[in-house]
Design goal:
The chain is of the alpha/beta class. The protein contains twelve helices and 15 strands.
Length: 399
Amino acid sequence: MNEIPYARQIIDEDDIRAVVEVLRSDMLTTGPKIEEFEGALAEYVGAKHAAAVSSGTAALHAAMFTLGIGPGDEVIVPAITFAATANCVVFMGGRPVFADVDEDTLLIDPGDVERKITARTRAIIAVDYAGQPCDYEALRGIAERRGLALVADGCHALGARYRGRPVGSLADMTVFSFHPVKHITTGEGGMVVTDREDWARRLRMFRTHGITRDPADFSPLTSDLRPPTSGLRPPSSEPSWFYEMVQLGYNYRLTDIQCALGISQLRKLPGWLQRRRELAAAYDDAFAGDERIRPLAVREDVEHAYHLYVVRLGRELDRGEVFRELRRRGIGVNVHYIPVHLHPFYRRRYGTEPGECPVSEDAYEHIISLPMFPSLTRDEVSYVVDIVHDVARDIGGSH
């Protein structure tokens, strides 16, 4: 059997036709597909507004900008996540504070969040690790009591639900990623969704160099530069060359080419989610009762999106040895993630060190991600399961 990767995108003829249609049009970027994709994604996740950007990292950065995070501010993030979740705080001059995770789910621990809050804390970023929504009731309660913003890093969780509500409608802002290994892809790309119109305007300004054409955002400092009628009517009612750069933003735009692909992919998401859940159930059944290979726990009040399928290996198994042997035998396993506070940058910049998030640090030593993508076949799942059992037996002895 050919090597099985841990993740893989699906691109079909509908996707190709959608992209080719844009390539043959006059607008390759800043055209109508941007707003169409934003509207479709916002409707899908139950949000009022969406802003498309060039990556999930750009989405996180835009969210921190929109909240006004700056020097002296702290934002609480989980230790088990991709580095971008914390990096976006640093981009704005703030300081990420690392909270530990729940031992069973590896989701941010609300109790540790509460313990890490100081007078400088401005926000919480909750990561829906592997595709499972966090405990938003607890996190929302903390945020409201302490006057904090709640941002959901939903990059793993497009299509997931918490108590019947979709990820995208549970926090003040939610960010998504459309990298090829995610639920839908635009090649690279991201989105921020929110119910606040003022934040949506700020997000869109940030992704375009901090530039606005809306007279409502114009500064009195530039009144002498404007055309005589500029600012007297809504921006859509008069043609004008005039714009203002009112903030320091970035070129984080997503192209119409990418948005056309995203629109096409989004139509197929429900079927792909169902398939991911079927594959997870097959893995669950195969590993039931085997203490050497334990899937992460799933809360009863969620619908998991299964971006990743993560298992915790028994302590008698050397994870490095298991990883190498599975890779040698054609199983594209991976590890998600090295605790962010242990990366050299954070140790140098903030003096973080081992022992600060003991649950995360212990979990990192034992977790491994198995292949999970909608085109994975039953035969491939059976093959993965058989090889994992064989390797566990060979390395750890008979069960």
